[in-house]
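Catalogue entry: protein

Sequence with per-residue tokens
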Amino acid sequence: MIDRVLRAIRLDARLFREAADTPRLSGEAAIIAIVVSLLAAVGSAVGTARPVVLLLVEWANGLVFGWLVWALISYLVGTVLGGKSGVGEMARVLAYASAPRLLSLLGVIPCVGWVFRVAGWVLSLAAGVLAIRESMEFGTGRAVVTAVIGWLVYIAATITLAVVLGGALVALGRYLPTLNQ
């Protein structure tokens, strides 16, 4: 598993082809997506006013929107563009593509932590393009279009979630002060 994570971080296109062709890697891919989302959430939550709440929201956001919704949107857009993949296959390869987000754990470093978070997202997007290309079996141009559309949906969903939960958490924080701990 660690070897495949390192290959994903190195943007090894052969890894994504291997993951696309190997359904037995689905469990491992899910574990990677869960752990990467958790560690990225830790990197975002440490040092904030409400670390527990932010950790849980970031973790759920990373899993649901950053992995599962991105996989579904990528599958839908990719098939419209002529790709040949399945939803499970797309979820599997994009789970591996999330591995560079492990850099977000270094987000706890004062003053420069944001650089690691941004680098993790950029590398994850690049890995996502490779993963989509290998899974859909089409060219890089279509993979870029598919990945960007998926990410735009992810960003819109994240902003919507932040607005909705932000208001709810402000109201809830007045009644449950223990959320601040």
Remarks:
- Helices lie at 2-9, 13-21, 26-45, 51-80, 87-97, 113-136, 140-175.
- Residues 2-180 form one domain.
